[in-house]
Write a structure and sequence with these properties.
about 10% strand, Rossmann fold, alpha/beta, 2 domains, 12 helices, about 45% helix, globular, 10 strands
């Protein structure tokens, strides 16, 4: 196992700097109807990526706690603590990614004595984390039906399933899938309405505001593809592939390389050589997209090859960069980086 976390300071500078420079609107909310004595709904998310979506929909009427809320933590290897178990047990609503990605949350939900509904993002988006344009609108009404606390172990065997990540098929990193995020937002609005029916209009309005932000992101992504037809990139892991697919940017990395890295294994030497050839070819790939939260000997080799070839390196993370708490701004910064790299 060679996959290791990178130092926090090294992975936040680029995204944060870009985010601070943004002029686009983030996940704007309507004025909250809360009063000082209005109780907040307790929402627990497996990672702050989904915590940010929950906050966008729930606004000031929810108290969101994310089990993983630091860019210095690798969700793949996270081990839950007794405090995490208490947090999940006290929750009124739970959001997890599913698809085997956040197995620690599956275990926490399965062991919990609570009965909070569970929104599983992979299930809500169609079960496979598929293409951005698939399943749109089909599952919004099924948010967490039947997913009470004891139903938490449905995905444990799926962690390594479908690692053929070509254009996002079978890719569990669905928080980079803009349609999936909207489907989760709709599910959140539905469940929050069930828990707190007095503020139905507020939750629906916030979900609709988020929809507008996601549509802007989709338009921005597709514009990148139109501006750079035939753009080709390499990636160190399949994390950002849904977003690349939306942008019409082709990932040409050998799938054996990204699968091995994601699993914490060293890719075979022949596979590493094929990946390095992407930067030695003429012309080389247009950019390298790296997972800024992890690294290994193999990914270091690939990054060095990109830098030596003059290929721009784009950093995208699995969780929110330090100092960022808005999902739309985060994704907008990622698209800004991608555009800047391809413009070079």
């Amino acid at each position: 196992m060679s996959r290791h976390p990178l130092r926090t300071a090294a992975l936040v500078a680029g995204p944060v700097a870009l985010t601070l420079a943004l002029t686009a609107c983030g996940s704007s909310q309507t004025d909250t109807p809360s009063t000082p004595d209005t109780p907040q709904v307790s929402v627990v998310a497996s990672t702050d990526a989904w915590g940010a979506v929950a906050r966008a929909v729930g606004g000031n009427l929810v108290q969101v706690e994310s089990i993983i809320d630091s860019p210095g933590v690798d969700p793949h290897g996270y081990e839950a603590t007794p405090a995490d178990a208490t947090t999940v047990g006290d929750a009124q609503l739970i959001v997890r990614n599913g698809g085997g990605y956040d197995a620690f949350m599956t275990d926490l939900v399965g062991a919990s004595t609570g009965n909070a509904p569970v929104i599983d993002a992979v299930e809500v988006s169609g079960g496979e984390g598929g293409h951005e344009h698939e399943h749109e609108g089909e599952h919004g009404g099924e948010a967490a039906a039947g997913h009470e606390g004891e139903a938490g172990h449905e995905h444990e065997g799926e962690a390594a399933a479908g690692h053929e990540h070509e254009h996002g098929a079978g890719n569990e990193h669905v928080w980079y899938n803009l349609t999936a995020v909207q489907q989760v937002a709709d599910a959140l609005a539905q469940q929050l309405t069930t828990i707190d029916p007095a503020h139905t209009d507020y939750y629906d309005t916030n979900a609709e505001a988020l929809r507008g932000g996601l549509q802007q992101l989709t338009s921005k992504a597709t514009d990148i593809g139109r501006t750079h037809p035939g753009a080709r990139v390499a990636v160190t892991e399949p994390v950002p592939e849904h977003l690349l697919h939306t942008a019409g940017v082709e990932n040409v990395t050998p799938p054996e390389f990204t699968s091995a890295v994601e699993e914490g294994n060293d890719p075979p030497a022949a596979v590493v050589a094929r990946t390095l050839d992407l930067f030695r070819a003429q012309p080389p790939v247009d950019a390298l997209v790296v997972n800024s939260q992890t690294g290994s000997t193999s990914t270091d080799q690939v990054r060095t090859a990109a830098e030596e070839a003059g290929v721009p390196v784009v950093e995208m993370s699995e969780t929110l960069p330090e100092g960022v708490d808005d999902y739309v701004l985060w994704m907008n910064a990622n698209l800004d980086q991608l555009r800047a790299a391809l413009d070079r």
